[in-house]
């Protein structure tokens, strides 16, 4: 790597904001001998351009000896982020490769067949006459031979050990804040009717320990291998059999990794196993209920060994970019890095704080036990915010589909349904794009859209956070960490999501958008996680105010000009002056402490076993308003 090339590799004709200083700091960090540089760059910093500059510092093929790694990888966990890269003319030399399922076969009789089910994978020894023009193999060949290959983090990890995508000199990971969580997700093994092709033929034991899960995994791996070999012996496979063969191959690899990692005395990974109740209808009625169990989920915690194989062994130098790597030491521990060997570069925020205000419209707690009481008040507040923003689009972060459905029902009952849009799990992307394309001032009630969403300008001028985004304590990994007292991690993870969400509606220095906080637990979270806040977000929190909203009037909420303009009234600016006569305050004081009994209740909902033994948790837990078991 030659860090001195970083300015020459910058793809834009000029710098904006703090980009030039950021490049200088990144160059100096690599020049000082650091193999890993964390770049904490807030929204609007042009992280993709910085990433391209770092990738351009990689050793070229001409400079490398035959045994030396050359070129660079660009990867991101977000598919939408990769789409943005692919469509950006300034990043045209990042050669994008996607998984086979994203490409369609070009054979005349197979035009609707994805490449991962085409004749070349269905028939043994198939000689494709058009493979040189196949969109997948063409993109793969280009990406593997050019200086910068771009792919999703999932594809990057799946190609570890590949002869095509070998080790390179530089690896750049964009949106890297969730690297540990993504690795845990990719390394998680789901064993059930949707993931094991012959699940109904299995007699799954009642797994009461991680050791028994290992023994069962060894037996299941052997069964999968026999069934895969039977399929490979056939001359031709149907599309269904192709899917089964490929899934069996994946499953064999997953099970083998789990068994070998667990039996490795040097591995730092802790494994947990959850088991659901079995479906009695698919079992022998004469079998003792205690002998058989249901679907299994085998989960790793802090899978350092997995990351070493899939990420850290793939390059010589690494740049990890994100707005929300909040604590360097904690992040490094989670991903298996030594903090002293990692440099942190902070990029200053260039968006005026008055253009990104936070407003306190809290109505109470949104924990499971308080939600029925609080949700109607939040719905009424949303109506009043619609009145305050009659001609502007709004985004509601509902956190869960249960909350989304309840809010939508209430808002329809209030008579503002014509201005409300929702989405379901299957149609979320299409519904989102339809809302973005509309010029009507509609309000989109979303679930899990706090990241990778660009709502610049009039696409959205205001948003509401309906619930503090704490992780679900019914998840065994979360419960295990909290038993070990990792409360700082718990609060930091929620804060990270909030910061990401706040960046959805303000995308440039001249842009503006208001964020309203409806759950009182958000205010408590700000206090608990304050030491991990970036300075620029601390400034937002310190400037937070309680607005005065119009009196509840659903008819007024739907009266608008029907077109989106560049209005800055209604809270997009910095002060909290009244928006009209008869306005009433919406802010409420933060509720006091509750007992810690919610933790015990949520923990009992999931039966899990740990590979490292039980640890002593604190007998008293913090405020009960952190608990959420409804995903």
TrEMBL record:
GO terms for molecular function: ATP binding; DNA binding; DNA helicase activity; hydrolase activity, acting on acid anhydrides, in phosphorus-containing anhydrides. PANTHER family: DNA REPAIR DEAD HELICASE RAD3/XP-D SUBFAMILY MEMBER (PTHR11472), REGULATOR OF TELOMERE ELONGATION HELICASE 1 (PTHR11472:SF34). InterPro entries: ATP-dep_Helicase_C, DinG/Rad3-like, P-loop_NTPase, RAD3-like_helicase_DEAD. Residues 607-621 have a biased composition (Low complexity). Keywords: ATP-binding, DNA-binding, Helicase, Hydrolase, Nucleotide-binding. Residues 283-292 have a biased composition (Acidic residues). This is Helicase c2. GO terms for biological process: nucleobase-containing compound metabolic process.
């Amino acid at each position: 790597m030659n860090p001195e090339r970083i300015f020459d590799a910058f793809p834009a004709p000029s710098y904006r904001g703090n980009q030039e200083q950021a490049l200088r700091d990144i160059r100096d960090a690599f020049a000082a001998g650091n193999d890993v540089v964390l770049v904490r760059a807030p929204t609007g910093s042009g992280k993709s351009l910085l990433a391209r500059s770092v990738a351009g510092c990689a050793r070229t093929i001409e400079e490398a000896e035959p045994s030396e790694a050359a070129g660079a990888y660009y990867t991101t966990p977000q598919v939408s982020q990769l789409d943005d890269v692919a469509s950006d003319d300034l990043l045209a030399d990042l050669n994008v490769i996607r998984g086979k399922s994203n490409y369609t076969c070009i054979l005349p009789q197979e035009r609707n067949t994805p490449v991962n089910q085409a004749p070349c994978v269905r028939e043994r020894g198939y000689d494709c006459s058009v493979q040189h023009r196949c969109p997948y193999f063409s993109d793969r060949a280009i990406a593997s031979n050019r200086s910068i290959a771009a792919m999703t983090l999932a594809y990057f990890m799946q190609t570890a050990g590949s002869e095509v995508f070998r080790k390179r000199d530089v690896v750049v990971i964009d949106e890297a804040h969730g690297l540990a969580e993504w690795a845990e997700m990719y390394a998680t093994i789901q064993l059930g009717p949707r993931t094991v092709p012959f699940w109904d033929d299995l007699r799954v034991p009642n797994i009461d320990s991680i050791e028994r899960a290992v023994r069962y995994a060894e037996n299941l791996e052997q069964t999968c291998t026999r069934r895969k070999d039977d399929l490979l012996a056939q001359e031709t496979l149907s599309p269904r059999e192709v899917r089964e063969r490929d899934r069996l191959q994946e499953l064999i690899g997953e099970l083998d990794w789990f068994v070998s990692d667990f039996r490795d005395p040097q591995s730092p990974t802790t494994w947990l196993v959850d088991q659901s109740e079995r479906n009695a209808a698919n079992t022998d009625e004469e079998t003792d209920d205690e002998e058989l169990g249901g679907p299994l989920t085998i989960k790793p915690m802090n899978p350092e060994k997995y990351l070493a194989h899939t990420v850290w062994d793939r390059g010589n130098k690494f740049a990890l970019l994100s707005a929300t790597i909040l604590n360097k030491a904690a992040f490094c521990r989670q991903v298996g890095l030594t903090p002293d060997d990692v440099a942190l570069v902070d990029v200053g925020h260039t968006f005026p704080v008055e253009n990104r205000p936070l407003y306190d419209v809290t109505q109470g707690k949104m924990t499971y036990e308080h939600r029925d009481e609080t949700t109607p008040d939040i719905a009424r507040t949303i109506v009043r915010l619609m009145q305050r923003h009659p001609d502007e689009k709004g985004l509601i972060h509902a956190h869960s589909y249960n909350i989304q459905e309840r809010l939508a029902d209430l808002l329809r009952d209030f008579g503002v349904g014509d201005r409300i849009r929702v989405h379901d799990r299957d149609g979320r992307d299409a519904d989102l794009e339809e809302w973005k394309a509309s010029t009507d001032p509609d309000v989109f009630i979303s679930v899990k859209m706090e990241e990778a969403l660009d709502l610049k300008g009039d696409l959205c001028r205001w948003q509401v956070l309906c619930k503090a985004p704490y992780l679900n304590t019914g998840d065994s990994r979360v419960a295990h960490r909290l038993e070990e007292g990792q409360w700082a991690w718990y609060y930091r993870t929620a804060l990270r999501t909030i910061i990401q969400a706040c960046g959805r509606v303000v995308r440039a220095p001249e842009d503006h958008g208001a964020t309203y906080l409806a759950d009182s637990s958000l205010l408590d979270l700000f206090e608990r996680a304050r030491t991990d806040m970036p300075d620029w977000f601390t400034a937002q929190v310190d400037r937070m105010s309680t607005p005065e909203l119009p009196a509840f009037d659903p008819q007024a909420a739907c009266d608008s000009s029907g077109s989106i303009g560049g209005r800055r009234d209604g809270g997009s600016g910095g002060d909290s002056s009244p928006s009209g006569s008869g306005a009433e305050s919406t802010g409420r004081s933060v509720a006091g402490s509750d007992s810690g009994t919610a933790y015990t209740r949520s923990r009992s909902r999931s039966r899990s076993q740990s590979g490292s033994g039980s640890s002593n948790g604190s007998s008293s837990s913090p405020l009960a308003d952190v608990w959420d078991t409804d995903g």
